Structure formats: C-alpha cells, structure tokens
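Good morning,

Attaching, inline, the backbone tokens for the sequence recovery test we're adding to the shared suite. The designed sequence is right after.
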C-alpha cells in the first residue's frame, strides 16, 4: 500500500528539544560526557551517527569556504603563547558579570538572568524598586528615565528591566527585589563580579604564574598570528582569507539548551583580510554568502534571519557586526557571527609582539595593516540547528513516523541495504550490493525485523535512501530504492545503483 502523510506534528512544540535529546542518545548522535560518572556539565560526546553528521557539516563548510582561489586553510595549535590573549583583549575583557544566590549557591549570568524571570515578576520588581527609592533622589530620577510606572506593555517592561539590571548603581537595588529562579528566596543575590571565561592550565612542570596558558576561547587568534606566514607561503594577495575549524573552550557560567551553549565546542572560522577601504563591500559579501550556506543545506529559510548589532552595542574591536540567527524551539539564537574587526587584531599583535604585520601592497606601493572581515560559526551549534530543523513527526497510515529530513549531503548514513526476507538468496545478494557501495558511501546493512519497521528505523536517523532486495530482484537484477521524504519507490538496476545514488546525493 502507498504511504500517505496525513499530518505534520510537533514541529516547534516545547517538547521538541527533549525528544531530540532522547533520540540523540537512543540512536547514537550525542551522549552526555562521562555519563557513567554522572556527566560533566556543558560537555557532550558525539556517537557513531553524530560524528558523521558533524564531520559532514564541517566538510561542507570547508568545501564552501576554502575551495576558492582566495581562501587558504590552516590548523593552529589549541595552546598559544599567553601574550596572544593579552593582545587580543581576552585577559582583560573576556568576562561575564556573574551573581550567586547566597542561599542555594546557584550561579547566574547577570546579563541573561532576565530570561529566567517572567514578565509579571519583572514588573513587580521594578514597581517595588521604584516605591523604595526616595523621591527626587538621583537613583529615583535615573530609574524614572528608564521605567515609567504603570506601563503594562510586556516589551517595554522587559526593555526597562534589561536597562536597569545593566546599570551599575540600580542593578544591586533591583537584584534585592528579585527572587532566585532556583530556590525562590528573595534578596539573596550577591553583587555582580566579573568572571573570566577562559580555562587556565600550566605548561611544563611548574604550576606558577609564569607557566599559565589558556585553552583557546576562539580559533581566530591562531589565524591572526599566522597571517604573514600563510600570506607569504601561499603567495596570496589582498583580499584573501584564512579558514580554520577547531575546538574552542569557554568556561560558560550557565550551560543550557543541549549543544547550544557548551564549555567545549567547535568553531568554523574564516578571517578575510582586505584593504581598509574595501571593508564594507566584503562585509556585505560574506554576510550574504554565509546565510546562503545554511539555506543551501536545506535549513528552513523562514527560520533564519540576521540580527544586526546596534552601533552602541558593538564589541570593542568591531565596526559592524551581525548574527545569523536560527529560530530554535526556545527562540531565536545566534549560530554565526559576522564582524568587521577593522585592523584591531593585527595592530594589537604588532604592538604586543614587536613584529610588523603590515602587508606590502605592490600595486599601490604602500604598506598597511589590513582590515579583517570575520565569519565565525559554531560547528556544534550548527549541528544542533540542523538537527532541530530536520526533525519531523508525521502521521503515516495511522502511525507516527519520526523522521530526520537531513539534506542528503549531511545525512550520516546515505543508504541502507535491506533484504526483504532472510531466505531465497536475498541476503547474499544484498550483502554483495552492500560490499560494492561501501567504498564510496556510508551505507548500513539491516536484515532484522519487518521491512516497514526497518524503513522507520532509517527514517528516524535521516537515511535518504533505502535499497530493498526482493523477489523481483532475483528475476531481473533490479532493486527498489525508497526515498525518505516522499516515501516513493523506484526500481533501479543493480549495476546502475551506485551512479544513481551518487547523482541523487549530489544533485541538490
Ligand atoms: P554567545 O553570545 O551566544 O555567547 P558569542 O557572540 O560569544 O556567542 P562568538 O564569540 O561570536 O559567539 O562565537 C562565534 C560562534 O561560536 C557563535 O555564533 C556560536 O555558534 C559559537 N559559540 C560561541 N560560544 C559557544 C558555546 N558556548 N557553545 C557552543 N557554541 C558556541
């Protein structure tokens, strides 16, 4: 009987993340790190299917970014000279404001505390704060400018709340009016302290201040310090880029939402070196290119958007910045940042190292420090976005089919080979097909259970094609090929199968 899809369900319901976390564990995408010891917060392990998906995402990025004439690849060490992080500003500025609950010891990032507080509670706290201040006092006047008592508009209240909590003077007063989101007690917060997110360790046998090194919090600095090495060895001329994929580590105060904010993660970064006067043109170019990349791999266009940073909120090094955001079930979240970093990084490394990082422009016959346009994507955050985006639950013939509609180039397994029954020479023939495809494609052999169940198992992990050896195969050397999303079946000759699959897999 033909399968009919009656209904799409559960897209974007609140429980989607729970379902995905559970599916990830059950089918071997992602496991909690050190699970048998109770897990390690903010760290995750990629299982057999997860490692394939992650590798495919990185490979697609690598091809898209570096198979161009003007982008080179590199792979710098995770540990770098500690002066790098002084020059970059990370030792001084890579901090988050942190508060603790004195009662239950829970720790929160001050700048994201608002996410855990309802609009009603925000309004109540602002009202109480307003009533507690002496009329005419400096604090009352300041609050009056940020918050108009009596307003009921949730967005206005939220904006006022954010502004008050960021204000040095008003922040501790507002914290006093709030209840801890974890234990519910009021007035238990410490005042905010700056917390550096870099992991420290020691190089060599001595554990003293002179031996401190950091686990890199971003891959970018490894590119900046190699700018002239790469440029001169590859004989590139401006504009050109350097790309790198690698691990980064941040001692995040609050890890949350599965792979979204973790303490160890992977980045896919490209730094594009340009003439200072061409910065805007290349910023716009890469902004467009990067959004297209996510779309080209099947991510739902309506769930992607730019979030341009307002000028007053730009990082210390940036002239212009945007985030590419994805609409996760918990709301919009950044998956990639695109920044015009000006000549900040190279100038600082020049200053701290005492080595010139100027580029000699042969045409203009002048030396200058290039500007940098950065594209910085999280591989693991993109992994999560692709996973969430492809997750569907559909009602098919009265049953729920759970399916991951990965783009074929991202799918961990490209095809499953299934003998209809385990007799009449079908397994032998299926094994032969499996052997012939294996050198070219990641395939999976499955002869356990009813054919419908086997199809569902493949749907659940996103395998785009199922190849079934049946009675007709024995007669005419053809197999059925079932396509995951449409569930349509086609008969294909065995000796044309590899070409057929390669064409289909690479056609999108
Ligand atoms: P956020 O504001 O979410 O902390 P960020 O602005 O600090 O992110 P960048 O420093 O621009 O992020 O890093 C570039 C990319 O690296 C992000 O777009 C994201 O995809 C990824 N990334 C950053 N921090 C984490 C993390 N803790 N866990 C997973 N991925 C991360």
């Amino acid at each position: 009987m033909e399968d009919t899809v009656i209904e799409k369900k559960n897209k974007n319901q609140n429980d989607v993340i729970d379902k995905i976390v559970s599916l990830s564990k059950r089918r071997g995408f992602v496991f909690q790190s050190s699970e048998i010891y109770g897990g390690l917060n903010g760290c995750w392990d990629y299982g057999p299917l997860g490692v394939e998906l992650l590798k495919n995402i990185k490979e697609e990025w690598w091809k898209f970014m570096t198979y161009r004439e003007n982008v080179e690849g590199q792979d710098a060490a995770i540990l770098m000279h500690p002066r790098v992080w002084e020059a970059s500003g990370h030792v001084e500025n890579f901090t988050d404001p942190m508060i603790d609950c004195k009662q239950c010891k829970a720790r929160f990032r001050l700048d994201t505390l608002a996410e855990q507080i309802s609009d009603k509670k925000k309004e109540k706290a602002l009202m109480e704060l307003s009533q507690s201040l002496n009329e005419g006092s400096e604090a009352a006047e300041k609050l009056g400018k940020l918050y108009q008592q009596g307003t009921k508009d949730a967005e206005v209240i939220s904006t006022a709340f954010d502004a008050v909590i960021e204000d040095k003077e008003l922040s501790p007063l507002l914290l006093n009016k709030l209840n801890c989101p974890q234990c519910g007690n009021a007035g238990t917060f410490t005042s905010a302290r700056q917390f550096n997110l870099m992991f420290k360790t020691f190089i060599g046998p001595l554990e003293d201040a002179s031996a401190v090194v950091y686990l890199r919090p971003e891959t970018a600095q490894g590119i900046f310090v190699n700018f002239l090495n790469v440029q001169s060895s590859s004989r590139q001329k401006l504009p050109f880029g350097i790309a790198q994929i690698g691990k980064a580590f941040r001692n995040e105060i609050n890890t949350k939402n599965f792979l979204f904010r973790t303490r160890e993660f992977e980045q896919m970064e490209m730094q594009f070196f340009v003439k200072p006067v061409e910065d805007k043109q290349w910023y716009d170019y890469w902004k467009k290119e990067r959004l297209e990349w996510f779309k080209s791999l099947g991510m739902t266009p309506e769930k992607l958007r730019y979030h341009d940073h307002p000028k007053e909120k730009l990082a210390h090094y940036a002239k212009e910045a945007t985030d590419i955001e994805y609409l996760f079930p918990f709301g919009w979240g950044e998956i990639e940042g695109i920044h015009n970093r000006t000549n900040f990084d190279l100038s600082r490394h020049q200053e701290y190292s005492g080595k010139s990082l100027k580029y000699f422009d042969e045409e203009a016959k002048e030396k200058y420090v290039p500007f940098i346009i950065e594209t910085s994507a999280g591989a693991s955050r993109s992994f999560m976005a692709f996973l969430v985006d492809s997750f569907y639950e559909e009602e098919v013939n009265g049953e729920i089919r759970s399916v991951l509609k990965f783009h074929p180039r991202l799918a961990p397994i490209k095809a499953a080979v299934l003998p209809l029954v385990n007799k009449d020479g079908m397994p032998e023939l299926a094994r032969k097909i499996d052997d012939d495809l294996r050198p070219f494609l990641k395939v999976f052999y499955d002869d356990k259970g009813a054919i419908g169940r086997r199809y569902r198992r493949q749907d659940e992990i996103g395998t785009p094609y199922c190849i079934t050896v049946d009675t007709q195969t024995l007669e005419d050397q053809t197999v059925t090929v079932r396509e995951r999303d449409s569930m349509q079946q086609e008969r294909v000759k065995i000796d044309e199968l590899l070409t057929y699959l390669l064409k289909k897999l690479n056609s999108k």
